[in-house]
Amino acid sequence: MTHKILILAGDGIGPEVMTATNKVVTALSQRFGLQVELEHALMGGAAIDDCGEPLPESTFNLASSADAILLGAVGGPKWEKIDRSLRPERGLLALRSRLDLFCNLRPAVLFGPLAAASTLRPEIVSGLDIMIIRELTGGIYFGEPRGIEELADGTRVGRNTLIYAESEISRIVRLGFEIAGKRAGRLCSVDKANVLEATELWRDIVTDMGAKYPAIELSHMYVDNAAMQLVREPKQFDVIVTTNLFGDILSDLASMLTGSIGMLPSASLDANGKGMFEPVHGSAPDIVGQNLANPLATILSLAMMLRYSLNEPQHADRVEAAVADVVGQGYRTGDIFSDGMQRVGTVEMADAVVAALAA
Ligand code: IPM
Ligand code: MG
Fold first, then answer.
1. pLDDT per residue over 20-64, tens digit each?
2. Contacts of 352 by beta carbon, 8 Å cutoff, 6+ apart
């Protein structure tokens, strides 16, 4: 079966890491028989420059008809000054929302040889394997009313709304239990139920659902404590399920446990497992065009796509094994470099992964 993949390279380092990842796709199809048809479209700042909006309707249409979407990164200083509703990030949020990609999986896995690249001591992070499940289409990111408003006295107020419907909470929490059941069986729900009513409801729903999953060891944690515990003793966690905003913050934090945000992939899935796959890192304007970006997060996002949306687990295994192999051989981009390793650029790293793909 031929899989239709939409490539949205985006902005900043997006095109560089995507070119690198495309080499891996090409190798999988030429050497290992993966059948894919690639389409490319503009999104984010690149689309704004082209036609004035971050998510052109033509891009959205291709996205809805594709089997899966691979995204590089969006945004950058060039577009920070334009009208809020037209910024690159809005395109990304609209795509997540319109495709109902409510389930965001952000694994934080430490590759053994990278223990020295973490800012935490190796014994704290070695063997780390956490799955953060972030609710992606609700909460304060989308709640209404929102905006910046001028009052009669000429001063301004900014407002956002944290709102969760029971159904939005249940569907993500259920996945939390299901995924925990396929892993070490521990689920930690992160909220701020001591202050925010919306997350008090969240906690109630998690507790009720917990009764249906007696085999899962369930815990609840306030988000401030969770941030501390992730740094203090990260290996206490197996699966974390949390709201949109808390998941955004905690996944950046968790990425540094693994050495670099340049290593972390993510999957954003709808109820049928169709999805968009993207590195957790951003567009990194400071290193654009210098062959410095780490392409491994995007290459690992490709692996997640093969596993979760395209049902090609052997190809996913092959890509993940190749990444582990090049890291084991000592290839390092600047973000994960440590003494004695071989420093390489984006292009060389991708070539090393391609060379390491094995039957
Ligand atoms: C992420 C990013 C996005 C988010 C931005 C770019 C809108 O930080 O995917 O984590 O906040 O969701
Ligand atoms: Mg983020």
1. 999 999 999 999 999 999 999 999 999 999 999 999 999 999 999
2. 326, 329, 331, 344
CA distance 27 to 44: 28
Which band of pLDDT confidence, cut at 50, 70 and 90, is reported for residue 85? confident
- Using most ligand atoms within 8 A of CB, pick from 74, 248, 261, 281 the residue to mutate for ligand 1: 248
3-class secondary-structure state, position 17: helix
Residue 332, classed as helix, strand or coil, is: strand
If you search the block for the tokens 């993949």, which residue do you land on? 5
CA–CA gap between residue 251 and residue 101 (Å, rounded): 17
- Can you give the pTM of this predicted structure? 0.94
Question: Does the Cβ of 92 fall within 6 Å of ligand 1?
Answer: yes
SS3 34: coil
Give the Cα-Cα-Cα angle 183, 350, 258 (nearest 5 degrees).
40
Give the closest residue (by CA) to ligand 1 atom 5.
89
Q: Are 44 and 96 in contact (CB under 8 A)?
A: no
Alpha carbon 334 to chain centroid, angstroms: 21
